[in-house]
Specification:
A hairpin with a 2-residue loop joins strand 4 (45-50) and strand 5 (53-58). It contains 6 helices and 17 strands. The chain is an alpha+beta fold. Helices cover 33% and strands 24% of the residues.
């Protein structure tokens, strides 16, 4: 017998004891174990017992079913200690002997404590570097003000502004990484989200004399997305691209379109930087595995991929010739969940914004 202990999501703290002889559904339908998580499909996944073992398979759910961080494509056998994720809900698998009491998940696991310690150390190191940058920039501006030297102040201020951007992105990514909030899916104008993110990044690009080019298809249909989450994805991708592009000759290109044959919204963010070394590419989306040395935490791409995948989409990397990098985020227009009880009407079409569909400089 096993028990599923809900460790995150709207139903955190719940426990489901599974009888050894009856298959069980995970989902929001009345015949399922039950979930108030709106990102879980009505019939999300199936649990099946067989000769003392339990097996799990996805039922073509909107966001997929994950075991220990890996999306499952076929039936998998569950083991004690596995973590199942469906939508925003995570469940810990515990073995339960007949007559034994259900025990809560321990928070004092040595591996977990070690991971927490490493995370805190990495973030503390990043904050220290950012504060040093802020202190240096502030000292330069303070000296310039004492001397009444406006030109010196202009030279010091970009240092302050750049480090303010870095600490802002760090805090947003820490919040997203530490606690998954439920997605709030609505039919949204994804083009407007792209343009807003580009506008926010404009001042950062300007400080490094980097050209920011964008094209958004004016005929985009409404997209079923969490606009705030997609906005954070774009800010992370744009921040990486602007950081990678060379000063004064840098170019970052953003392209947003709807791929009708595949029924996906596609956003490409490209830069003409030096590219990602081959030895770092396999760990590109791993948390805290930064390729920027002391300038990064490695959280940006990890958070971006997690948010995209929670939409049921993909975030992929491609090296550009002769150099440069392209990140492609794809969001499904059809989120599956054929038995969902949610229906939404279309949004008004957006008029082309000619001021943005050429260049942001």
């Amino acid at each position: 017998m096993i028990v599923l202990h809900v460790i995150s999501g709207p139903d955190s703290g719940k426990q489901h004891v599974l009888p050894d002889t009856e298959p069980q559904l995970i989902g929001r339908s009345t015949e399922a174990l039950g979930s108030s998580d709106s990102s879980v499909s009505r019939r999300h996944a199936e649990l099946t017992p067989s000769t003392g073992d339990w097996y799990l398979r996805d039922l073509r759910s909107t966001h997929g079913t994950w075991v220990n961080g890996q999306r499952i494509e076929s039936r998998v056998q569950l083991r004690a200690g596995d973590v199942i994720r469906c939508g925003d809900t995570q469940m810990h698998v515990q073995a339960l002997n007949p007559g034994a009491a259900v025990l809560p998940v321990t928070e004092s696991d040595p591996a977990r404590l070690q991971a927490i310690g490493e995370t805190v150390a990495t973030i503390s190191h990043s904050v220290k570097n950012i504060l040093q940058g802020l202190r240096g920039g502030a000292d330069a501006v303070e000296l310039a003000l004492r001397r009444g030297d406006l030109e010196m102040a202009r030279e010091g201020w970009p240092i302050v502004a750049r480090n303010l951007d870095r600490i802002s992105w760090l805090v947003m990514n820490m919040l997203a990484y530490a606690k998954d909030r439920p997605l709030e899916i609505e039919e949204s104008d994804i083009g407007a989200v792209v343009l807003e993110a580009c506008e926010l990044m404009k001042s950062t690009a300007d400080r490094r004399s980097i050209q920011l080019l964008t094209h958004v298809d004016p005929s985009l249909p409404p997209a079923p997305i969490d606009a705030n989450a997609v906005h954070q994805v774009l800010l992370n991708l744009l921040a990486n691209a602007v950081e990678a592009a060379p000063e004064r000759s840098g170019r970052v290109t953003v392209h947003c379109a709807f791929d009708a044959p595949r029924s996906v919204f596609r956003i490409d963010v490209s830069d003409n930087g030096a590219g990602v070394p081959i030895e770092h590419q396999s760990r590109l989306f791993e948390a805290f595995a930064s390729t920027k040395g002391q300038r990064g935490t490695g959280l940006g791409l990890a958070v971006a991929r997690a948010l995209v995948e929670r939409h049921g989409g993909t975030l992929t990397f491609a090296a550009l010739a002769p150099h440069g990098t392209q990140m492609r985020a794809e969001f499904p227009a059809d989120r599956g969940d054929p038995d969902s009880d949610r229906t939404r009407g279309p949004l008004p079409s957006r008029e082309p914004n000619t001021a943005w569909d050429s260049a942001i400089q």
